[in-house]
Design a protein that fits this description.
Length: about 280
């Protein structure tokens, strides 16, 4: 009898833990936003920009996959940090139908903008079905431009002495990194935005030295304790989340994503990153 009681209690405990774990990964962690603070030394940074803040927001994924009112609430929290610069690193929507344009308009009424400038790049989901719909990408870019977000499609922009180069999405139909990287000027204070970190391994960088900000991976969204995430949508499985030294003068930072492609997260909280700018010595 004691053995039967032990087995029964063990089974009930296991079932209860599974239910609680499932509820946590479905209803709590996908909405448990973390603001991550990182130092960012940049070569040639103007003296007046030392100590300024640059906020990275990635993979917003406005759509029908989860309640996007969470994104609006997150934007409201982020605005309280009053960032000097804001960059968005792609996947503004989870595109299925033109309904996402209206949803994007609604959410980005609350967009976070930098005091000195705001820029971004597109992600694969911003290129519509099978990442092939150029008109979808154009429509999203136009909506964001009206929100004072400069979308860089193999282009660059300078704000108060910070030069931001934006590479269009690796899987999208407008990927042309050499168009912008051939314009890289090592004398400027540079920063590169690139949605998919796999681009870091391509021979397109023109001896670039500096930071690359990416997203795309969501950190895998699910990460077993002490193990790497089992699913990462990149060829280089090293690229999960966080800061990576690329050993050639480049530093990659992969944001874990604000939104969710599917509403489940475990040991990979959603993230907004706040970088403190400093001059590289």
């Amino acid at each position: 009898m004691e053995r039967r009681k032990f087995i029964k209690n063990t089974l009930l405990t296991g079932v209860g833990a599974s239910i609680l774990g499932g509820l946590y990964s479905w209803q709590i962690e996908p909405f448990w936003l973390e603001f991550v603070h990182v130092k960012m030394p940049i070569k040639n940074l103007p003296k007046n920009l030392i100590g300024k803040t640059l906020m990275q927001i990635s993979d917003v994924h406005v759509g029908n996959k989860f309640d996007y009112n969470y994104i609006i609430d997150s934007f409201k929290k982020a605005r309280l940090y009053n960032p000097d610069f804001v960059v968005y690193t792609g996947d503004f929507v989870s595109y299925e139908t033109p309904e996402q344009f209206d949803q994007l308009e609604e959410v980005f009424k609350y967009a976070v903008n930098g005091k000195l400038g705001t820029a971004g790049v597109l992600g694969n989901h911003d290129y519509g079905i099978d990442w092939l719909e150029q008109d979808v990408a154009n429509k999203i870019s136009n909506i964001l431009d009206k929100k004072n977000i400069t979308i860089l499609r193999n282009e660059q922009v300078s704000f108060s002495g910070l030069n931001i180069l934006g590479i269009d999405d690796y899987w999208g139909s407008n990927f042309n990194p050499t168009k912008i990287m051939t314009k890289y000027d090592a004398e400027k204070a540079n920063l590169v935005l690139c949605h998919n970190p796999d681009v870091c391994d391509l021979n397109i960088w023109n001896n670039y030295k500096g930071w690359i900000l990416s997203g795309h991976t969501h950190g895998g969204q699910v990460k077993p304790p002490f193990l790497p995430p089992p699913i990462l949508p990149v060829e280089n499985k090293r690229y999960s989340s966080g800061e990576f030294d690329l050993y050639d003068g480049r530093t990659l930072y992969i944001n874990r994503a604000l939104g969710n492609l599917y509403q489940v997260r475990l040991n990979v909280r959603p993230e907004i990153t706040i970088f403190e700018l400093d001059k590289e010595v």
